[in-house]
Amino acid sequence: MSVLKTEALTKQYGRKETAVLALENANISVERGEFVAIVGTSGSGKSTLLHMLGGLDRPTSGKVLIDGKDIFTMKDEELTIFRRRKIGFVFQAYNLVSTLNVYENIVFPIQLDGNEVDEAFVSEVIQMLGLTELKDRLPGNLSGGQQQRVAIARALSTKPAIILADEPTGNLDSRTSADVLSLLKVSSQKYHQTIVMITHNEAIAQMADRVIRIEDGHIVKGGEESHE
């Protein structure tokens, strides 16, 4: 069963003469444990698609189903809770809390939900991402690559149904980018974690299990294929 599926997902900005169709009838399907890259040039609609996959923006029409649930049937407060529990985000901007140390940043979403931290799992993630020696540091004392690793650990810590990564290496140099992408791939394999990453970089996309290509708001390749 697909962990993520869209049905005729459409997003229009503006009305009548000023209307802009950012996404039209997008149908994609992602299996549990898949690492999928969504590739497109600037303005192709990939960020619009990702924001709707994550419930950050509502579509004009169509559906997004995560674990079989149509997320846009929920009211805003219910959707916020669902998003926190089911979706992990890794953005180009690391979005770490500057006053919290590395460990506190990683477990923050769990505590925000009032849940107990699975210390053994979090420790395993921290070790895998090479953050053990950095647990007590504040974000301001970390390099860009280290901050992005913290963001990945934070996304994994809640054991989400899906991780959405928006140009996760956009602020990193090529060597650090390769390291971060390798860690994402290892995370996908080790924890059978579903990851959907958007990028404009073809070389980066090739590290994924499958590439979905988007042009001018239309899925032109790979949307419904499943990874063997």
Question: How do you describe this structure in short?
Answer:
It is built from 7 helices and 11 strands.
Query: Alpha-carbon distance between the termini?
Result: 13 Å
Number of domains: 1
Count the beta strands.
11
Can you tell me the CATH class? Alpha Beta
The helix/strand class is: alpha/beta
Shape: globular
Low-pLDDT runs = none
Mean pLDDT level: 91
Task: Tell me the radius of gyration.
Answer: 17 Å
Q: What series of H and E elements makes up the topology?
A: EEEEHEEHEHHHEHEHEE
| Largest sheet report | 6 strands, mixed
Strand order, largest beta sheet: 7-8-9-4-10-11
Provide an overview of this structure.
- The longest helix is centred in the last third of the chain and has 17 residues, at 174-190.
- This protein has 228 residues and is α/β, with parallel strands linked by helices.
- The two termini are 13 Å apart.
- It is 33% helix and 26% strand.
- It has a six-stranded mixed sheet with strand order 7-8-9-4-10-11, sandwiched between helices.
- The mean pLDDT is 91.
- The relative contact order is 0.22.
- Helix 3 (102-112) packs parallel to helix 5.
Core attributes:
33% helix, 5-stranded antiparallel sheet, 228 residues, alpha/beta, single chain, Rossmann fold, 11 strands
Write the layout of secondary structure elements.
Elements: E1 2-13, E2 20-26, E3 29-31, E4 35-39, H1 46-53, E5 61-66, E6 69-70, H2 76-86, E7 87-91, H3 102-112, H4 119-128, H5 144-157, E8 162-166, H6 174-190, E9 195-199, H7 202-205, E10 210-215, E11 218-221
Parallel strand pairs: 4-9, 4-10, 7-8, 8-9
Antiparallel strand pairs: 1-2, 1-3, 1-5, 5-6, 10-11
